[in-house]
Design goal:
Layout (H helix, E strand, L loop, with lengths): L3 E6 L6 H15 L10 E7 L1 H4 L3 H7 L9 E8 L8 E5 L3 H15 L3 H10 L4 E5 L8 H14 L11 E3 L2 E6 L11 E4 L1
Antiparallel strand pairs: 1-2, 1-7, 3-4, 3-6, 4-5, 7-8
């Protein structure tokens, strides 16, 4: 994936912060994938390194993000596509706060006009939390059921019906995603 990406992660103190990496690890092992990554929701990607150089933290801190909006992540269901980065994921509800944050990220990062960014967030943005990166075929219904059981075994509610089915707030991180997946390490972080 070219450039860097802006991700939303759970708050450091939230129980999902430790449970989701375990779920990603077990899911990847179950399907034979070597890829491990931080649990995240991508807000925008393909950010040019020149945009955040020479000081990625100063760049992230300078983004005008209103702190009065409630950013809530609520899981909805498991899904799978024939796309490497969406091979298996938890679909998230596109609530107002998350939609606004995605639109703002797109506007700030890519220079979209406010109306264009809002339209993109409403019509195109697909908030999700990936559990598996893989080149295999999409995961079938049986595989989805198996992963839902894996999720339950580590205390993650992929249906969003309990406290372990999402989070409020979180951390924004900037990650150079133009490197191999095993080198996707945040270079800047900001609490919401």
């Amino acid at each position: 994936m070219p450039g860097s990406s802006l991700w939303l992660l759970p708050p450091q103190s939230h129980p999902l912060n430790s449970k989701l990496p375990t779920l990603i690890d077990r899911t990847s092992s179950h399907f034979g994938s070597a890829h491990r990554f931080l649990p995240h929701i991508t807000l925008t990607s393909e950010i040019s390194a020149s945009a955040h150089s020479p000081d990625p933290q100063a760049w992230l801190d300078a983004l005008e993000i209103p702190l009065n909006d409630t950013i809530a992540v609520k899981f909805h269901h498991l899904a799978s596509e024939d796309v490497f980065f969406r091979k298996l994921y938890v679909k998230c509800e596109k609530g107002e706060g998350l939609r606004k944050l995605a639109a703002l990220s797109r506007r700030e990062v890519e220079g979209f006009e406010e109306e264009v960014a809002a339209k993109w967030a409403a019509e195109t943005y697909n908030p999700h939390l990936s559990l598996l990166y893989h080149d295999n075929l999409p995961v079938n219904a049986r595989g989805l059921d198996e992963v839902e059981k894996l999720a339950q075994s580590v205390g993650v509610d992929v249906t969003g019906q309990s406290d372990s089915g999402g989070w409020t707030g979180g951390r924004l991180v900037l990650v150079p995603t133009d490197k191999p997946v095993d080198q996707w390490i945040p270079i800047a972080e900001r609490k919401l």
